[in-house]
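Translate sequence into structure tokens.
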Amino acid sequence: MATSLKIDDELKGRVQQLAGWRRRSPHWIMLEAVRQYVEREEARESFKQEALASWAAYKETGRHLTGQEVRTWLNTWGTDEEEEEVVPECHK
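Result follows.
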């Protein structure tokens, strides 16, 4: 899919300079910038949707873990106290 993108002369110059430094074409630099932006925004939206789903589940059930319960569990990771599959149980 061919797409046109209009950028001002200052940004065009910066892209060309960066392309030279990276030994890439300006086209590659712009495609990479768009790809990274889209991936970052997709990840941000996914995180937001997961948070909204978690909030909805909490409002429906009231089940949760406190921040301290999670931190205590996470602090055992990579230590002799770590036990596989011993996840704190949610409560009301």
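Note: The chain has a mean pLDDT of 94.
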